[in-house]
Structure formats: C-alpha cells, structure tokens
C-alpha cells in the first residue's frame, strides 16, 4: 500500500446497546437486544404491531429505565450523561404527540429550540418549514392541520433540537412518515438521508418495507422483542423471513434503482393451501 494511504477506520459508534432487556407490566417486551449505530447510518427498525419497536425507542430516549451501563452514547455510558447535555445531541419523535395547548406551527417548532436567540430561532424555524413543506402553515394552529401536516410539524420540532448543533447527533424517530402521502414520504426520507450524509445517526421505526428498502442502509427486524434479522435490505427482505415474521406472502424483486421491492401476493395465493373458501367463491 502506498505510504500516503492510511486504511479507513470504522467510525466510532454513536449508540451501542449491550444485551438490553425491558419488562413492562411484568412481561418481557424486549430481550437480549444488542446493536450499534454509527454516524451517517440510517437504520430502519421493522417488525409487526407489538414487536417492541416503540418500547425500544422509548428506552433509548430515556423514558423507560434500562441499566445505564448497557447503553452507550458517543462512547460514554448513558447514565454518565446529564439530561440537558444529551438533549443537544439526541432528539426523539414519539409515535403519538398530544398537544396540550393550541399552538401555531411556528410555536410548536420553537419548542425544539427553547434557549436560542430569537433571531436564530426564527431562522432555523424558517429553514425547517421550507425543507419540510410546511411554511404555508406557519401561523396556523397545529390542531387544525391535517394528520400528515401535523406529522411534518412534529418532525420539524424534533429536527430543531439538533439543527446546527455540534456533533454527535442521534435521531430516534417512531413512525415519522406513517401519515404522509407518497410524495411527502419521499421528501422526508430524502431529508433524513441528507442528515445521515452529514453524520447524523438515525434509527427510524417504519412499517413501509419499501420505504425502508429504498432509504435505509441497514434494516433491523424485530419479532416479539428480539432481533430476528439484521442487514442490508437485500439480506432482510426475503420472502421466507417476511412470511415467518409477519405472516405475509410476497415476492421480492430487485429494482434497477438498486434496492429490492416487496410485492405482497394476492390473498388468493395466500389462501391457496387453505380449505377452498376463496376458490369456491363466484368469480364473475
Ligand atoms: N405499559 C405496558 N404494559 C404492558 N405491556 C405493554 C406496555 N406498553 C407496551 N406493552 C406491550 O409491549 C408490546 C410492544 O409494544 P410496542 O408499542 O413497543 O410495539 P411496536 O412494535 O411499536 O408496535 P406498533 O407497530 O403497533 O407501533 C405490545 O405487546 C404492547 O401491548
């Protein structure tokens, strides 16, 4: 190797979990879960309803207790971080957000940046509103917006928390695109991808397998609180795996764009081996 070339070093992890387990209401919800998230990675967290995705995100957000030495953020045990310090580096979008008071779009986004100069705050809010296509709702009360519009406002609030702040950055997003139309899903995931390109680490819980396939570097598939598959979209989105985990019958096609697409097969195929209820139905 020429002298002037040094081997690429793997980036130090932003988030590491070591065999974490979470019990709620006396039931194990997450078990023996270990993974690493590095700067620049967008990891999609997949799994059926009730698999434990939100529980894991809430634990990583500090809302559910896990042994603090089992989760490391930027090389330090999570328990060694002061809450106020970590809030500048880690932002979390929960699955559901209940607004306590009627507030405008601007006011909600400003909640992500409470201790900023007014001038800077308005500049950041303006930039985020433009990026997430919500500028025309700037002075509307958020409860009067549509579901997808509100979801974009909440994402803007979360992004405001880390916007232009020093690295490292971790975003934990629990279904940030579930209410969005297809064009806005693309817009939002392109924005997330740009953040990843700037070194942000993202863990994004999502149900849309094809969005995950298109945008995520890595997929982590949970079933009953355990990781049952992890890897590139091509490694995880495999018909046998999806049948075992979701009970979904599908085929998977490699697109010329470079990622696999999951195509659920018609119910008649799904039921092909079941007693002939569908086959005996009239076809005309
Ligand atoms: N406080 C609680 N007490 C008991 N069980 C709970 C509690 N909170 C969540 N659970 C259970 O934990 C399991 C995982 O829930 P979680 O919300 O993490 O799933 P999820 O993968 O995010 O699902 P979804 O895709 O529906 O959002 C579910 O079976 C849920 O009923």
UniProtKB/TrEMBL annotation:
GO MF terms held by the record: ATP binding; ATP hydrolysis activity
Domain of life according to the entry: Bacteria
Keyword Transport among record annotations: yes
Keywords assigned by UniProt, alphabetized: ATP-binding, Nucleotide-binding, Translocase, Transport
The protein's name: Heme ABC transporter ATP-binding protein
Species lineage: Bacteria, Pseudomonadati, Pseudomonadota, Gammaproteobacteria, Pseudomonadales
PANTHER family the UniProt entry points to: HEMIN IMPORT ATP-BINDING PROTEIN HMUV
Pfam families in the record: ABC_tran
CDD domains reported in the protein's UniProt record: ABC_Iron-Siderophores_B12_Hemin
PROSITE patterns xrefs: ABC_TRANSPORTER_1, ABC_TRANSPORTER_2
Start and end residues of each ABC transporter domain: 15-249
The protein's role, per its UniProt record: Part of the ABC transporter complex HmuTUV involved in hemin import. Responsible for energy coupling to the transport system.
């Amino acid at each position: 190797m020429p002298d002037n070339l040094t081997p690429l070093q793997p980036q130090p992890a932003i988030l590491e979990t070591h065999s974490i387990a979470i019990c709620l209401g006396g039931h194990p919800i997450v078990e023996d879960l270990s993974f690493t998230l590095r700067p620049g990675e967008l990891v999609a967290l997949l799994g059926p309803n009730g698999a434990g995705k939100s529980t894991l995100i809430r634990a990583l957000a500090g809302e559910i207790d896990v042994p603090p030495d089992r989760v490391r953020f930027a090389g330090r045990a999570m328990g060694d971080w002061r809450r106020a310090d970590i809030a500048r580096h880690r932002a979390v979008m929960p699955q559901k957000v209940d607004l306590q008071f009627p507030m405008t779009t601007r006011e909600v986004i400003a909640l992500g940046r409470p201790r900023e100069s007014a001038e800077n705050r308005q500049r950041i809010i303006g930039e985020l509103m433009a990026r997430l296509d919500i500028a025309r709702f700037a002075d509307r009360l958020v409860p009067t917006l549509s579901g997808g519009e509100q979801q974009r406002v909440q994402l803007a609030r979360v992004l405001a928390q880390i916007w232009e702040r020093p690295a490292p950055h971790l975003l934990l997003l629990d279904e940030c695109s579930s209410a969005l139309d297809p064009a806005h899903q693309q817009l939002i995931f392109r924005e997330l991808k740009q953040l990843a390109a700037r070194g942000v680490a993202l863990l994004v819980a999502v149900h849309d397998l094809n969005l995950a396939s298109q945008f995520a570097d890595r997929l982590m598939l949970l079933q009953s609180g355990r990781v049952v598959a992890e890897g590139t979209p091509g490694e995880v989105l495999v018909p046998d795996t999806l049948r075992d985990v979701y009970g979904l019958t599908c085929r998977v096609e490699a697109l010329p764009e470079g990622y696999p697409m999951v195509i659920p097969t018609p119910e008649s195929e799904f039921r092909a081996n079941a007693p002939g209820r569908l086959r005996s139905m009239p076809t005309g």
